[in-house]
Specification:
By secondary structure, the chain is α+β, with helices and mostly antiparallel strands. It contains 3 helices and 3 strands. The protein has a 3-stranded antiparallel sheet, with helices on one face. It is globular, with a radius of gyration of 14 Å. Pfam families: FtsK_SpoIIIE. This is FtsK domain-containing protein.
């Protein structure tokens, strides 16, 4: 089994290399935890999107701010602009299971 720190190193390296040449990476998790979404990973992901989360702590882990815990779900999101702490609320397309 691969150690979490080893995986973090791979993700960070991929993010650094991709960012340098203009490739965007999409990382997703169902349960954000500080031990998984580390500061090193976040520092290499300048743009972040947060959908509804269960608690303020989860919002802070993803976006470094509260707010995602109050979203409505079904595509309601907060977008963190690169290089700022400005959150923009947006609506994405929601596709439920019956449409898949």
């Amino acid at each position: 089994m691969t150690a979490p720190k080893e995986i973090e190193a791979y993700v960070v390296r991929l993010a650094q290399k991709s960012r340098a040449i203009g490739i965007h990476i999409v990382l997703a998790t169902q349960r954000p935890q500080a031990t998984v979404v580390t500061g090193l990973i976040k520092s290499n992901m300048p743009t972040r999107i947060g959908f509804r989360v269960a608690a303020r702590l989860d919002s802070r882990i993803v976006l470094d701010q509260n707010g995602a815990e109050a979203l409505l779900g079904q595509g309601d999101m907060l977008f963190l602009k690169p290089g700022t702490s400005d959150l923009v609320r947006a609506q994405g397309t929601f596709v439920d299971e019956t449409e898949v």
